[in-house]
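Q: How would the structure tokens look for this protein?
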Amino acid sequence: MRIDLITLFPDFFKTPLQSGLLGKALDKKIAEVNLVNPRDFATDKHRRVDDEPYGGGVGMVLKPEPIFAAVESLPAFDKQEVIFLTPQGETMTQGLFRELATNFERLVLICGHYEGVDERVMHIVTREISLGDFVLTGGEIPALALINGVVRLLPGTVGKADSLIAESFENDLLDYPHYTRPAEFRGWRVPDVLLSGNHGEIARWRQAQQIQRTRDRRPDLIRRWDLGDKGTRGER
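A: Here is the predicted structure in token form.
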């Protein structure tokens, strides 16, 4: 997958894109991230990318010309999304990450700043995505979250693909509790079932824990899970 980042602050991404599983995935060419600065496409001597809003108001607005030029400088792909990171977009979910990882060869991510972008930029945007119901100083943090969430789902990023199946938000359930050595720590013991070697009992215990944890912490998810097709998620 190719990811093109339209950002005024390309240095923001340098260390995160070199770290952990994400850095390894990029090294292995599982995905490619290309950083594009709209300032490089500004036409005046000051390389200005923002201006005052028509109609008055506080703050500045990103101009359309540099963003259009930056996006149009990139090669076209048959299966691509041009995404604007904005609090007004649909909220990031595991299902959204899975959709983008599965259905697209290329993502163009536009990071907004200041009071936003000229509305005419929306003519080249195919999707608006938000990190949540809050406002940040720019779109770089949401873009990094989206890149991380999508790339980790691409084949080869995570060593054991099976580990992606039972994690939080797959099948609308949170993850089950995890334990490792020692078997007892400060009086807290690992549940006996995990030490039993009975894989059937362990699987049933883990699913029961997922259901109970989701019921306790995320009633919105458990309602969605309860409405799902029981035949597609196994017996409770």
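The mean pLDDT is 92.

Strands lie at 2-6, 32-36, 50-51, 61-62, 80-91, 106-111, 127-130, 184-185, 188-189.

Upvote if useful.
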